[in-house]
## 1
Amino acid sequence: VSDTTDAPAPYRVVYSERVKNELKLLAARARERGLIVPFRAALLAMDQRLRLYPQFGQPLRDLVLEPAQLWIGVIPPLVVQYSLDEERRLVMVYLPIVPLPGSGL
Amino acid sequence: MSQQFWEMLVSGAGAIDVAKTSPALQQRLRRLSEDLAVILGGCDALARDDILARLCAQVLSHIQAADTAAREALATPAEDRQAIDGQPPRPGELSPELLEWARQQFSAEEIVAGLREIRSTGGQELTDFLGEIDKELAPRE
């Protein structure tokens, strides 16, 4: 019996400067609305999911000028759109993460 | 007092050896202990012990709430498990209305510009800026 596991290497998840700045604004809004815990939990869970299994979302649109697809993933109260580079096992988040409509955020 | 608290953290025989954690975490813990020392500096010993005990309970309660929320968010839907097991994933369950709303959030030009920007800069991982997010989340006085 082998001790080794067949778990694939996780993806690397990177965020753009714009996404970081918008997340800070969203965090401030979460604080003001008393949603600190769900916001932080969703952010960490989203990052973990993107690292382990970015296909948890679903394709949203094909990009015309780039050989890539835009995906969408929802972890309430957050919605993330991202691109996958399977060859480099890279997830790129370059569009601001936005609140899920009706989530109160 | 903050030095005592820090030494207790570093040399404690708990499950986590703080001395082996990242320098950034060590720095944040040290700052936290210094802030606590300032806040509790004016209290008598009994009040200080009482406040520290209540604080520990509150911190543990926050962690428990965050863990529960994360576990719920991470619960793997049936279609994900099926995909991990080698079966083709079933279509997601996002509503057409939500997908349409999401498509309207950003223009094609915005998407391409963002993709090119992150490819050229390389981007940052969440752990690189989680501290900045936590600062925004920290309650204001």
Note: Residues 78-91 of chain B have pLDDT under 50 and may be disordered.
## 2
Amino acid sequence: MKHPEACIQCGTCVTVCPVEMVGGHAIVTFLADPDATDYSVWLCTSCWRCHEACPVNVDIYGLMMEQRRRERAPGGYQGSFECVMSSGLALRISQEELDQLRTGWELERAELPPSGLARVLLHVDE
Amino acid sequence: LEFAFYPGCLILQRMPEYELATRAVLKALGIELKIIQQAACCGAPVVESFTGDWLYLSAYNLAQVERMGHTTVITLCGSCTNGLTRTVHALQDAEVCAEANRRLEPLGLSVTGQVVVKHLVRLLAEKEEKLRSLFVRPLSFRVALTNPCQVFRPGGVMGVSGDDAMKPHVMRQLVELTGAEVVEYGGEDECCGATLYLAAPKLSLAAGRRKLEAIHQHGADLLLHGCGNSQLLLRNFQHVIIRDAPELRQRALFLPQLIGLAMGLPEKGLGLRGGFWR
């Protein structure tokens, strides 16, 4: 990852990061210390606190997403992504199961997206 | 009054009581929701982590809203609200919008991006006066709330006019309107850590533990959420988080369930059954 020129390494992002609060190191560790190697962009929770708090408006979220696309994803993300590619949703359910669920809760019927939808909309090499 | 409703994967499949309570509360306000048929994943942050094309999946959902003839879509989850709103912003660029329409064309859909994405907490905040008149039962709970982060940040895009993106007030105000007390445990504006679960389950559970410990120290009757992710971690995974510390146990409600109780609506119609109202 390339360290953003605008970053002044003030460390504000680290102090507001929920991952740092539990001892994990997300992208914000790298921003405060470009030599850091013990961080992972996949640990970011997308809470946007660092992005909002940055005094020089570094696009931290954008940087993190770009770096994720260059890296191999952890199993949880990979599994959810493949589920979206095959079913259009990040969690798997059949129309029959959904119908049963919604009937039980007396909610109006909801149709699942057509299969193959994500392949039409996303031009991704899997 | 009728709005389109985007359920999102998690609430559609795992948390029907959130939708049920939302519908009950909005019905009392004279608002009906029409669910988007064939809605897809909002794309953020899962698909976004793999491709910049995630915008077009999100745009598909907005195209469905436009096809329904609606200009406002109501959301219940932070991530979905955030992803759909950022897509509306992206579609204001003519080239992005043209590309979205190229991809939607084979599906018989089109999109203009003229849709307002509104999370339930924002919609309820707009109806404060009407809510006040509908509240028949002042609540006396001590409520430990977690703000749905992605509904408010980035502030410039999510449009938090009059509110503070780092310390939003709207959910807090709604809780106080019911008579309930907001517990100041220090984590109200902190991310719950649920999305960490996809990459590092142990850290995610540690984030949940940190929150539950702070809440326990300050004393609360219930947790309150306006997002499926925080409910997933702090309610559905709570038994794992507190396995060695049963004193941390807390019941967890969704915002409209609390609002509905203050309205005196029947608990069953708010999804407070089968152990949810513990």
Note: Chain A is about 45% helix and 0% strand.
